[in-house]
Amino acid sequence: MASEVTAAPVALLLAGPTAVGKTQLVLELAERIPIAVVSIDSRQIYRGMDLATAKPSPAERARVPHYGIDSRDLDQPWTPGEAARDVRRWIGESWASGRLPVVTGGSGLYLQAALVGFDSDRKPPDPEQRRLLEERLKRRGLASMVEELRRRDPESARRIDLANPRRVLRALELAAIGASAGGSLQTRPLQLTGPRFLLVRERKDLVERIDRRVEGFFAAGLVDETRRLVARWGEQALSRLPTLGYDQVRAHLRGEMTLAESIEAVKIATRRYAKRQMTWFRKFGDFVEVDAAAGERALESLLERVPRQ
Asked: Has domain 12-117+188-304 been given CATH number 3.30.365.10?
């Protein structure tokens, strides 16, 4: 295996909706060939967000090297633009270690940013993000916001009118998602080469797996984990990272729903999310669909198309 990533990085991409069985298939693949997991999950990167994100356990990570897991705190946002850069680096490190990089995750926007980029010029304003930025502008003043922009996006800081608060706030808003007022991510795509797989299951099977998984989260201590996150980071930090499971449990902790209602709300929201994921993946295109319920045949489908570099 080569130790250097070319202009078009080579990896195996494994996508799929939540609870479809990506982790299990990756572990089975690792028993056959040397691989490393390059996670592009937008929540598993945060330390402490373990249960509701279905983060691979320490034992599972001991079996297969993982990139993109537990490398940030909740006050260190991971933007799609940063994900695109990080994935490129992790792929290189994986090949350098003699392992096939397997890029995996279910976060559509982050996957898109890493594979093809996205056009920041067409990104509409985010009302909530803009409101928070305007509040910070009132508290801290324009000079402080300009200094933050210079740290986060020097290119934009050089190009825009720094005396114009609206332009400064727009540039910071774009920086928060990894885009730039000084240039679009669309001009810097990852252009990943290699096979792209989409794990699928029958809808009834997937719904049953989602329900069992959610019940498992709560049995394993999701309420206590959420309570610890709130105590450590506060409600505001968690509200800026809306996440299935934690959002509903926080509502329970505030007394807005019973525990049973919280569990059911997580199940319903996760089923809907999985449906949206499948719609997005199929629109994204260029995937070989693999039936995750096919067992050994699913594994063989991946092995038949293992890229070499």
From this structure: no
pLDDT digits (tens, 9 = 90+) for 167-185: 888 888 777 655 555 544 3
For the chain, how are helix, strand and coil distributed in percent, rounded to 5?
55, 10, 35
Asked if residue 6 lies in contact with residue 77, where contact means CB atoms within 8 angstroms, the answer is no
What totals of helices (H) and strands (E) does the chain contain, helices first?
13, 6
Would you kindly state where each structural domain of the chain is located, as residue ranges?
12-117+188-304, 120-184
Distance in angstroms (rounded) separating the CA atoms of residues 225 and 210: 20
pTM of the predicted protein model:
0.77
Residue in the structure block whose two tokens are 């090297």: 65
Is 230 in contact with 253 (CB distance < 8 Å)?
A: yes
Instruction: Pick the more confident residue, 36 or 286.
Output: 36
- 254 vs 14: CA distance, rounded Å: 38
> For position 64, what pLDDT does the model report?
97
Count of Cβ atoms closer than 10 Å to residue 142 Cβ: 14
- The three-class DSSP label of residue 6 is coil
Across the chain, the runs of DSSP E, i.e. the strands, are 12-15, 35-39, 66-67, 100-105, 196-200, 288-291
Please give the Cα distance from 221 to 33 (Å, whole number): 34
